[in-house]
Write a structure and sequence with these properties.
The structure is a single chain. By secondary structure, this protein is mainly α. It has one domain: P-loop containing nucleotide triphosphate hydrolases (Rossmann fold, 3-Layer(aba) Sandwich), CATH 3.40.50. The chain contains 7 helices and 3 strands; from the N terminus they run H-E-H-H-E-H-E-H-H-H. Strands 1-2-3 form a 3-stranded parallel beta sheet. It comes from Mobiluncus mulieris ATCC 35239. It holds the Pfam family IstB_IS21. InterPro entries: IstB_ATP-bd, P-loop_NTPase.
Length: about 140
């Protein structure tokens, strides 16, 4: 935590924007919340279609807060629709082996991981938290 994952994701999003690529940034929980609301209002397909028009989707803090099975399935729909058509950046502090627990559904986690690693690049961040080393309360 605090090693620059979100910072790098935002920088990559900014670079994409400079290259006329549309970018949308969400935390995992906010994206799932938007999808839940769309589903409740019978406009999930429209929301997924709109997301499908985005060149780069950034999903921040995946696994920081627990996600239930319905949330995992909604997230999977975004990822499955984007697979081989769009770019997605995730930030997470969890190893893939813990995604099943975090997503509340091991099958959905396995499907998401499968699509992620097929064409994806994994960057591992290590080190001391920037916020801890630069904290004003010492």
């Amino acid at each position: 935590m605090g090693c620059g994952k979100t910072y790098l994701a935002i920088a990559l999003g900014y670079a994409a924007c400079q290259n006329n690529i549309t970018v949308k940034f969400y935390t995992a929980t906010s994206l799932i919340g938007i999808l839940r609301l769309a589903q409740e209002n019978h406009r999930l397909e429209k929301e997924l279609t709109n997301l499908g028009k985005t060149g780069l989707i950034i999903i921040d803090e995946l696994g920081y807060l627990p996600i239930d099975q319905q949330g995992a399935r909604l997230l999977y729909q975004v990822i499955a629709n984007a697979y081989e058509n769009q770019s997605i950046i995730y930030t997470s502090n969890l190893e893939f082996s813990r995604w099943g627990t975090a997503l509340g559904d091991t099958q959905m986690a396995a499907a998401i991981i499968d699509r992620t690693v097929h064409h994806g690049r994994i960057l591992r961040f290590a080190g001391t938290s920037y916020r801890v080393t630069h904290a004003t309360m010492k």
